[in-house]
Design goal:
Layout lengths: L3 E6 L7 H12 L4 E7 L5 H11 L6 E6 L3 H10 L10 E5 H6 L5 H21 L5 E5 L3 E5 L3 H12 L3 E6 L21 H14 L3 E5 L1 E7 L6 E6 L4 E4 L3 E4 L3 E4 L11 E2 L1 H10 L5 E3 L2 E3 L1 E5 L9 H17 L2 E6 L9 H10 L3 E4 L5 E5 L2 E7 L11 E6 L1 E4 L2 E4 L3 H8 L26 E3 L9 H19 L3 E5 L3 E3 L9 H5 L5 E2 L8 E2 L10 E2 L2 E2 L9 H5 L5 E3 L4 H7 L5
Parallel strand pairs: 1-2, 1-3, 3-4, 6-7, 6-12, 7-8, 12-25, 14-23, 17-18, 17-23, 18-19
Antiparallel strand pairs: 5-26, 9-10, 10-11, 13-24, 15-16, 20-21, 21-22, 27-32, 28-31, 29-30
């Protein structure tokens, strides 16, 4: 049995002296204990230094810390390290504070729980095995899917940092949906000129390769070893081997055209942008008739998306100031949570834009070629002051539903990312950073993740660029091998694990040399195709371990024996 060193942490008095004396008495009864020392705060820098000096003697092979929750020590022990002479995975924690002392008020009960907790920890320590680290070389190459403003911004940021970028756009030109805009709500520049300057910079940057009218056809490999293949519009195929991939393919819109919504005087936001861009002076005209009143009807779709509110207020100011149109905005809520939007909303009200709030959907009808809107205004706090309002408008601007881009589902099948309930990539992403995906080395930004205003998308673009630069800057990705591994002799190639792995870290390639194993004792060249787990892509979550019907997968840092030891059982 391995020699074990014991450290008792008083946790600045959280574990009383009487309990520490009982713990020391219990430890004296155990075999193979090299020493038992007490300290005040082992998770502190001073505590770590004292522990390191003691371990440098090299007379112990395992360490048990008796104190509080493992979370008190994990960040210090695993991140900062304890001693160069001992592997960081040869430490075990006995949480006597929460598991025993705090749980029991009577002395005898607490003592029994303390003894049981320490015995489990010592048994667990004897089963620990060192887990080494490895490193994956990373070349400074990135693939960016999507040539909109997000993809362009990310490509430029990466190129400035010395990273070679392949920028892929399925359309015939760069720019994306931002080209539909005339102006930004918070920038004093025209969208077209701003994007043209960005595109010009992309074409002049030597380490950015632009592929237009190209689509991703296949993707193999993991972080640092991706193998991507694209198909061009002329049928030719192009290969790329980036270290990381950024998805910025944007979103699409769908407009309701049934019934009265198909009337020529019910238009979309993009129609208004074109109208404002083409009109030179008042009066504004649509279909040969002057436009004096315009109503915006929001929140029938996209209730949790603020893009429509931003565009409605921005366009309303332009319509009132430049073309002297009377504008009314009907919505359930005015969404002003973007930078500067609250000030813009106040300005719109001061300029005469009318805002009406509703709970029940407004009714639309046609009166003398114009659109009449009947709505109950609920802006008043008291219900008796809420009245029915009728608005006769020359044009009604309605929201278009934001939907995933047509290629999103197909692209997701290739990338093996997670789709949200509405079909956007990584929309429901509570366990990872906003821009990270379920696969290490693949990042998501912009409208393909969730439709949002241009400024917010550009913030995401900068965040992605910083993540990629930080990842590739060192030229290698260090990782420890505390991951799942497959016993090829037990694997039945049932494909359960690759289907369940949330990070797509498991592959089964029967005819690939790296995934062919020879079962122990096999003769005559017999081979057995088995699942393979990429250690650099595995997060060590253990889902595959729990679901493997053949019990062929184990976690290196939490084996079956160690789990049974924690349960007080034997295999």
């Amino acid at each position: 049995m391995a020699r074990i060193g014991i450290f008792i942490d008083a946790l600045r008095g959280s574990i009383p002296l009487s309990s520490r004396e009982r713990i020391a008495a219990t430890i004296k009864e155990l075999p193979d204990i090299a020493f038992c020392l007490q300290d005040e705060d082992l998770a502190s820098a001073g505590g770590l230094e004292r522990m390191a000096r003691r371990l440098e003697k090299g007379d112990v092979e395992r360490v048990v810390v008796i104190g509080g929750s493992p979370k008190c020590y994990e960040s210090s022990f695993l991140k900062l390290g304890i001693s160069a002479s001992m592997n960081s995975y040869l430490f075990c924690v006995a949480n006597v504070r929460e598991m025993a002392i705090s749980a029991e008020t009577e002395g005898d009960g607490a003592l029994e729980k303390i003894r049981a907790t320490i015995m489990k920890a010592v048994r667990m320590a004897s089963l620990l095995r060192p887990i080494e680290e490895d490193s994956l070389p990373l070349k400074p190459e990135a693939l960016v899917l999507g040539g909109g403003i997000v993809g362009i911004s990310i490509s430029l940021e990466l190129a400035r940092s010395g990273i070679r970028v392949v920028l892929v756009e399925k359309g015939g030109h760069l720019g994306g949906r931002a080209l539909d805009l005339r102006t930004f709500y918070n920038r004093p520049v025209e969208v077209r000129k701003w994007i043209d300057d960005k595109i010009s910079e992309v074409t002049k940057t030597s380490n950015i390769t632009v592929l237009t009218q190209a689509e991703l056809r296949s993707l193999e490999g993991h972080l640092g070893r991706f193998q991507a293949r694209f198909k061009r519009h002329d049928g030719t195929e192009t290969d790329s081997s980036p270290s990381v991939i950024v998805v910025a393919t944007g979103y699409s819109t769908r407009r309701e055209v049934k019934g009265i919504y198909g009337h020529k005087r019910i238009i979309s936001f993009s129609d208004v942008e074109k109208l404002l861009a083409e009109a030179k002076a008042a009066p504004l005209q649509w279909d040969g008739r002057n436009v004096e009143t315009i109503a915006y009807l929001l929140d029938e779709v996209n209730q949790d998306i603020k893009v429509d509110s931003i565009n409605a207020i921005k366009q309303s100011l332009a319509l009132q100031e430049t073309f002297q149109c009377q504008v009314a905005v009907l919505c359930k809520d005015v969404k002003v949570s973007s930078d500067g939007m609250e000030r813009l909303y106040r300005t719109a009200r001061e300029k005469g834009v009318l805002f009406f709030k509703y709970d029940e959907a407004p009714r639309l009808s046609i009166v003398d070629g114009r659109i009449r809107i009947d709505v109950k205004d609920t802006a008043a706090v008291r219900k008796e002051e809420q009245w029915l309002v009728s608005i006769l408008s020359d044009l009604v601007v309605v929201s278009e539903a934001f939907v995933p881009a047509p290629e999103t589902e197909h692209l997701n099948g290739i990338l093996r990312l997670h789709l949200g309930n509405r079909g956007f990539l990584m929309e429901d992403n509570p366990q990872l950073l906003r821009i990270r995906s379920n696969r290490r080395g693949i990042f998501v930004a912009g409208g393909c993740r969730f439709p949002q205003e241009v400024s917010e998308s550009l913030i995401e673009a900068r965040a992605v660029a910083q993540e990629v630069v930080a990842l590739l800057a060192k030229g290698a990705y260090p990782y420890d091998l505390a991951v799942a591994e497959v016993d090829p002799g037990k694997c039945a190639v049932c494909y359960t694990c690759p289907r369940l792995c949330p990070h797509s870290a498991i592959t089964v390639e029967k005819y690939a040399e790296r995934n062919i194993y020879s079962p122990p004792g096999a003769a005559g060249g017999i081979t057995w195709g088995a699942a393979r787990i990429d250690p650099a892509a595995c997060y060590g979550c253990g889902i595959c371990v729990a679901e493997c019907p053949a019990k062929a997968i184990t976690l290196r840092h939490l084996t079956d024996e160690q789990i049974y030891a924690q349960m007080g059982l034997t295999v």
